[in-house]
Amino acid sequence: MFAKIEHGRLMDRVYRHQRHFYDATRKYYLLGRDPMIAGLNPPERGSILEIGCGTGRNLVLAGEAYPKTSLYGIDISNEMLATARKKIAAAGLGKRAHLAYADAADFDPEALFGRRQFDRIFISYAVSMIPQWQAVMREAVSHLTPGGALHVVDFGDLRDLPGFSKTALYTWLEWYHVTPRNDLFDVADVIAVESKTETEAQRLYRGFAWISVIRRKA
């Protein structure tokens, strides 16, 4: 509980002011978010949960791309949730979208939203900021419907980029408490074995962004 509170306070401090210009600046380097959303392909009247919904930018795009789905989002930063609620309301999605404060590593969606499972769950550039990210992914998989899928997009290993680019980016990310998970695909494979699910791995932009999908069998 203490770790949860402290991480939430840290995120509030980091984003208290950044949330007002977050989307305008992050579009230049949070690559892969839109391809990830395009690849969700939920059932027509399915449910979509974003873990670490931030400003609500991705939920709005998902809502526009899949107009008959129900939308859900959780975040550990009340500052970000305040911005997300405004953005979702401005997009006219207030009746379809439901947001809640929660710790992604241990949350009860039935208590929060009145449902236990979701057709699609996605995590966009958040596992690199969550200390217990592997637990978060396991928790997410446990809340998938049969045939449901977890989609994770985050920084990759930059394998095909010049060495100085990787060093500069990683140094910059440290300033914002971001740690790229270069074992993301390996961890996804381990979780798949544990949960009897299947994985897909996609590398984008010369390794700048990775998309990991864990899919439950129907």
From TrEMBL:
Keyword Transmembrane helix recorded: no
Coiled-coil intervals: none
InterPro entries: Methyltransf_25, Methyltransf_Superfamily, SAM-dependent_MTases_sf
Signal peptide: none
GO molecular function: methyltransferase activity
Keywords tagged on the record: Methyltransferase, Transferase
CDD domains in UniProt: AdoMet_MTases
Domain Methyltransferase positions: 48-148
Methyltransferase recorded as keyword: yes
GO terms for biological process, alphabetical: methylation
Protein name: SAM-dependent methyltransferase
